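[Q] Does anyone have a clean structure-token version of this?
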Amino acid sequence: SMPSLAAAGLGKSLGAQIHPSSTEDLTGVGRLKAIVETDRRPGRSSSINCIDTTKTSRDTSSPPQTRPRSSSICEANVFERLTNSGSLPEVILGGRRHGGIMPAPLRRDKSQYLLWHQTAESHTRPVLSVAASGTALFTGSQDRTAKIWDLAACKEVVSLGGHPSSVVHVNYCPRTALVFTASQSLVKVWDVRENQMKCIKVFGSTNASGGSSSAASDAVHDMVLSDDGNTLYTTCGSSIRLYDLQKLQPIGRLTGCTAPVSALTLLPAPKDNQSGQSVWLAAGARDHYIRVFEVNPKISNIQISCNTLEPPHYDGVMSLYVHDDQLYSGSRDHSLKQWDLSTQTLKQSINGAHNAWVSSLLRVPDKNMLASACRSGVIKLWQLGTCAPIGEIIAHKQPINSMAATKNLLFTASSDNSVRIWKVRNTAK
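[A] Here you go.
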């Protein structure tokens, strides 16, 4: 836990610069640094006051271009720099509305596999994306901000602004403590270890005036990180861009899709892969097709192959999830498909899996179940491997736009401006 303001000797040094409402904000900054540092320590577990989750992240070296936190800098100096450094147009400490994570209404329905536990509220418009790691929660919204939340303290810590439009996707790398936010054609890279938690790099297309390109042909809809945290893959209209996060520079572009790419996921390497240099990536596009790319970021001609999975969906592909050698896809056509990656063939198709667009797919934490969410606010559960239906729950009254999970929690981002936090019942298999 972070020292109090009095213990840190900050009461006199900051003087009139701290008014009563800002004291909690500064403590929140300290909590964010504690979250980041804890999340990067191997073997450390973190107890959440009312959630009871544990850490799973591993520690590796950070990008050489990112300045490490100096051990000689005391917390008092960090807080003084945060308050004396002038205006921070892109970072609002504590958030505009001082958002919080509130307990869910008491429910006695014991038949549900997922129990609504808490709600995170602060965004003023639909929440489009959610990511989670350890005790940190990350959200992106149509209100043009991304927010970082402390699950242990049940509150919003930081609001990241300066985006040209809606923040359609957020991601976080626990190995490097970098946060990624996508808006229009741009991806902003934030180092939350920096004293001001500032944006350290902007990737993407710009217009003649240097601003974000608003053309649909350049829009970013999804992004994924390599397992080692050194490579970022983002959609860019109908192509996919690769970025080197150690050098903070572009690597190249993948082509082969004929419409905007809306979903990405990394795939396990085939068993006959001898070199170990290639990376496999699945991309779902609005032309109804899924394509599998073989990529080698270490060579100049990074794109080795591009195979199209047949048959296509009847509408655009919105979500992808991979488990072992099985790929699952959700579409605007309301269907769910299961693919065998070893043969790159369709295993089964569940038409009418939902009554609306299937917007997100993921594995239920610590269970052999696949969760699918749709724009009618419903989550359905399926047996992994067979896709046998297990159950469903009306999770929101508005569309679910994104899901994320930690060891034993599931998060749903909705157009009702909130993120709901769900516990998995121990009776769920």
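[Q] Thanks! Anything notable?
[A] The two ends are 35 Å apart (CA to CA).
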